Automatic annotation (TrEMBL):
<protein>
    <recommendedName>
        <fullName>CAAX prenyl protease</fullName>
        <ecNumber>3.4.24.84</ecNumber>
    </recommendedName>
</protein>
<dbReference type="GO" id="GO:0004222">
    <property type="term" value="F:metalloendopeptidase activity"/>
</dbReference>
<dbReference type="InterPro" id="IPR027057">
    <property type="entry name" value="CAXX_Prtase_1"/>
</dbReference>
<keyword id="KW-0812">Transmembrane</keyword>
<dbReference type="InterPro" id="IPR001915">
    <property type="entry name" value="Peptidase_M48"/>
</dbReference>
<feature type="active site" description="Proton donor">
    <location>
        <position position="391"/>
    </location>
</feature>
<dbReference type="GO" id="GO:0005789">
    <property type="term" value="C:endoplasmic reticulum membrane"/>
</dbReference>
<feature type="transmembrane region" description="Helical">
    <location>
        <begin position="329"/>
        <end position="351"/>
    </location>
</feature>
<feature type="transmembrane region" description="Helical">
    <location>
        <begin position="176"/>
        <end position="197"/>
    </location>
</feature>
<keyword id="KW-0645">Protease</keyword>
<comment type="similarity">
    <text>Belongs to the peptidase M48A family.</text>
</comment>
<feature type="domain" description="CAAX prenyl protease 1 N-terminal">
    <location>
        <begin position="22"/>
        <end position="206"/>
    </location>
</feature>
<dbReference type="Pfam" id="PF01435">
    <property type="entry name" value="Peptidase_M48"/>
</dbReference>
<feature type="active site">
    <location>
        <position position="308"/>
    </location>
</feature>
<feature type="transmembrane region" description="Helical">
    <location>
        <begin position="152"/>
        <end position="170"/>
    </location>
</feature>
<keyword id="KW-1133">Transmembrane helix</keyword>
<comment type="function">
    <text>Proteolytically removes the C-terminal three residues of farnesylated proteins.</text>
</comment>
Length: 447
């Protein structure tokens, strides 16, 4: 996906510590640097600075809360308490201690419910205070809660059956259960990737085929020129949720689809329409007047897609899948080595039993934590390399000028702050800083 630099996945404490450096940049960089004078006006620069400063403050406190909550749960014996509670609930339903998988599913349901409830105030504040303040939120409170409930239900419908099968495979798999468990998770991940945009995403957002016209014809022509097996192009109504924009492709083999957020398309974004142009007021979406156009022109949309298709043509998607599965196999192998260590369970308050689900939680979430940090950093470095390569691919398609202007527009529309602390950027940003990408494209334009 083509977007402004965003922090990659990392621990909450990592966000709390490294964000100090970036917050200093937000506070002290109050004027547009000379090198940005031609691409960003002072008003937009100040808006983006304040937006990112608010996000950084929110990230600090939410990350700190997450660390405190997790520490309190561990120190107070929250995990064994919840496990025992799950046993009592499943016991009342007629499932004794021998039904470990049933107890595990009850535990998982209660744990995810607890996480959803404790995370709700933070999500509400982020959506209706920060995003609202800076003009991105398009949701009503009713839509937010309806969406949250739907997400929780869909998550449980996927998580509980998959977990029960995984636990069953581990139980009956013998000495080589880790191979079967890895193969199972591989199949599940491929199935989810395949069905997500067709069956899961439409439960939350409306997907419509891109209307016939010049843009669709140009997209099909570009896809054909690089042998991309495009079958459909969709526009998703992301504007009912947020004014942030994006684009992506999905599908395997000869069945590829492209999805464009309506907020990316200047000619299709609902946020650019006057109230009279709407088919009717959507009760779940706020009507907000805008005094400026959002999104990209057709040529710029094609440049963005040229970048996205570059990821496919250069094999980035396949490489990421291979790396992910190699890591998954390694984790399951190490899990098989460590699962018999009773002292691991005892350290978390499980002295008499060693439930498989608890073992997965202890080893994957806690024991592997340092390894996951190193892996996250390596994947961030790789992701930035892939982004430069995808930009270069779009450049080879003759889209350097349009991609240059598209990156500036997207950064402006999403209020991305173009100045970053090098330590924070190196550790967190999965996409290169805007200036670095523009410089590479500018060299191509001058050629």
């Amino acid at each position: 996906m083509l977007e402004a630099p965003q922090p990659s996945l990392s621990s909450a404490w990592d966000c709390v510590s490294f964000s100090i450096f970036q917050r200093r940049v937000y506070r002290t960089t109050t004027h547009v640097p000379r090198e940005l004078g031609q691409i960003m006006d002072s008003e937009t620069f100040e808006k983006s600075r304040l937006y990112q400063l608010d996000k950084s403050t929110f990230s600090f406190w939410s990350g700190l809360y997450s660390e405190v909550e997790g520490t309190m749960i561990l120190l107070s014996g929250g995990i064994p308490f919840l496990w025992n509670l799950s046993g009592r609930i499943s016991g009342r339903a007629g499932f004794g201690p021998e039904y470990e998988i049933v107890q595990s599913l009850v535990f998982l349901l209660l744990a995810t419910l607890f996480s959803a409830v404790t995370g709700l105030p933070w999500s509400l504040y982020n959506t209706f205070v920060i995003e609202e303040k800076h003009g991105f939120n398009q949701q009503t409170l009713g839509f937010f809660f309806k969406d949250a409930i739907k997400k929780f239900i869909v998550t449980q419908c996927i998580l509980l059956p998959v977990t029960s099968l995984l636990l069953y495979i581990i139980k009956i798999g013998g000495d080589y259960f880790f191979i079967y468990a890895w193969l199972f998770t591989l199949v599940v991940s491929l199935v989810l990737v395949t069905i997500y945009a067709d069956y899961i995403a439409p439960l939350f957002d409306k997907f419509i085929p891109l209307p016939e016209g010049e843009l669709k014809q140009q997209i099909e022509t570009m896809a054909k020129s690089i042998d991309f097996p495009l079958t459909k192009v969709y526009v998703v109504e992301g504007s009912k949720r947020s004014s942030h924009s994006n684009a992506y492709f999905y599908g395997f083999f000869k069945n590829k689809r492209i999805v464009l957020f309506d907020t990316l398309l200047e000619d299709y974004s609902a946020l650019n329409k006057e109230p009279a142009e709407e088919d009717g007021e959507n009760e779940e979406t706020k009507s907000k007047p805008k005094n400026k156009k959002q999104g990209c022109k057709n040529e710029e949309v094609l440049a963005v897609l040229g970048h996205e298709l570059g990821h496919w043509k250069l094999g980035h998607t396949v490489k990421n899948i291979i790396i992910s599965q190699m890591n998954s196999f390694l984790c399951f192998f190490l899990f098989a080595v460590l699962i018999g260590r009773k002292e691991l369970f005892a350290a978390f308050g499980f002295y008499d039993t060693q439930p498989t689900l608890i073992g997965l939680m202890i080893i994957f979430q806690f024991i592997f934590s340092p390894y996951n940090e190193v892996l996250s950093f390596c994947l961030t470095v790789l992701s930035r390399r892939f982004e430069f390569q995808a930009d270069a691919f779009a450049k080879e398609l003759g889209k350097a000028k349009d991609l240059y202007s598209a990156l500036i527009k997207l950064n402006k529309d999403n209020l991305g702050f173009p100045v970053s602390d090098w330590i924070f950027s190196m550790w967190h940003y999965s996409h290169p800083p805007l200036l670095e990408r523009l410089q590479a494209l500018k060299d191509a334009k001058q050629e």
